[in-house]
Amino acid sequence: MVYRSAATAVGIAANFLTALLTLPTLTHATPEPSITPDIRPMEELYDAAVQEGGKLVVRWGGDELYVADSFKVAVAECLPYVVKEFPLIDITIITDVSKYHDSWIDVQLQTTGSAGVDVAVLQTLQDFERWRDQGDLLPYKPAAWDLIRPGMKDPDGYFAGYWITAFTFFYGLLEYTDYVDPKWKGQIVLTYPNDDDAMLFQFTTAVAAHGWSWFEALLANEPKWVRGAQSPRLWLPTFERGVSFTSGGVGLTCGPALCTTPPRTDQFVSWPQTGAIFKTAEHPEAAKLFVAFATGETYQRLLSTWTYEQYPTHPHDFHKFMGDRARVERLRFQFERYLGPPQGPSPLYDDVTLDTF
């Protein structure tokens, strides 16, 4: 959850609410007149979207198709009073990893002058500042704007974090050093750090704390290397005692199938999955409805399974990391020297699903 209000942040203690207020203020070179939050009720936003044509195209950063499908389910569950009065918006959600979405959008902007999409929700946080500075984004502040943490939104409304994503530990291990214990040899499932910048940050954090000797000891335990953040969760049940520190998406909780156990002191990666409306959006009213829903209290309550202030993770660190592209590239090839290029098909099309095993 990206809220900072006790009234809308389920389970967040009051003394955690201002943790990001001291982050550097995001600015851009050509500020435009500030806009005010759109306080139209959801029904009115929905009506405007229907009148506009009832369509919406979203590029959604993710590496499993079912992740975006869950958003459609949430829309149907959270807006029953709207659905009864109006037909559902025809939502096209195009799922791919963020590094390919941003490249596709850039090519569209260069060749046609249009982004070719209404909204993008991505992990590549550095893209939004660049698109803003190029004049490619439409500023919009939903009704819940003032409840979103200052460090997780552009002050002029060009983009905002919609929720916090994290990759943490699974099945009881509490520090990165636990994974080099020989008893875990052949039982570790990890995502390639040179295939995903969030994974790269996770491994970089571990090496900064424990050195390259830790990584070499980890390799001695013969991890199974996979592509995609969701893939370890899918593979873990096939191991006798499978463990990982490169997956997430289930909240920092234990359940019958998977158990996430945040480290005691070691840092793990988290970030605000960020979205924006493009200035060339063909369906701007539907895009505003999307943003209003994603940042609204009803949907945010569904996501409120944990709060990052309780754990050793700092979402703003990943934002800074993503902005230094030269460093990211250096680190990527340092790990690739050990691992070689990522092997296997895209996790979007590898036929490994929740029903595979």
Roughly what is the average pLDDT, rounded to an integer? 81
Report the count of strand segments.
9
The outline comes out as elongated
Q: Largest sheet at a glance?
A: 7 strands, mixed
- Rg, please? 20 Å
Unreliable stretches (pLDDT < 50, length at least 5) are: 3-32, 79-86
Identify the quaternary structure here.
Answer: single chain
**What percent strand?**
5-15%
Tally the helices: 12
Span from first to last CA?
Answer: 32 Å
Secondary structure class reads alpha/beta
**Helix amount:** 25-40%
* Helix and strand sequence: HEHHEHEHEEEHHEHEEHHHH
What does this structure look like?
The protein is an alpha/beta fold. Strands 1, 2, 3, 4, 5, 8 and 9 form a 7-stranded mixed β-sheet that branches. Strands 6-7 form a two-stranded parallel sheet. Helix 1 runs antiparallel to helix 9 and helix 6 packs across helix 7. The longest helix has 15 residues. It is elongated. It starts with about 40 loop residues before the first helix and ends in an 18-residue tail after the last helix.
